[in-house]
Please model this.
Amino acid sequence: MKRMIVWAMTALLALSASAQNHMPSAEETPQLEFALQLRVTLDAAYSVGETQHGRRTVIPITGGTFEGPGLKGTIINGGADYQLANAAGRTEIEAIYSIRTDDGVYIHVRNRGIICSGKDDSGRPSFYFRAAPQFEAPADSRYAWLNNALFVCQPAFDPNFKGIVLNVWKVK
Model:
């Protein structure tokens, strides 16, 4: 038993050392595949004010549409984007809502991310907005693939749309 533990520890140390010296190749780098675009309509934001965690803002989600390869539908009224901002220019976001596909399947969405504004290393203004939506689709539906993948999204700005446009990619 003692020998097994020593062997396991030695193997873990060897793997750890080799992993630290190995830089991933281009083939090992995760790839992104476009999954869908969400066009989310919003109601007026309101502020809870300064809390013990920062400035809390709530933005009600009133609807919208989504479309991607193999799925299309509407965003259900009733969700919200909950934002928590600190004095350093960083905002944590968590949007919770549901979508309904054109064939009647409801999917729950929880999208967490960050928005940072400030200055880059050169002193120029910078803006970063990324999030990682998680989907809960019925396991017996044709959308079950959404349950078993990681996704990332970023906004796309459309001056002709009153709301937010989010492009979503699946990490392959």
Summary: Residues 49 and 55 are 5 Å apart (CA to CA).
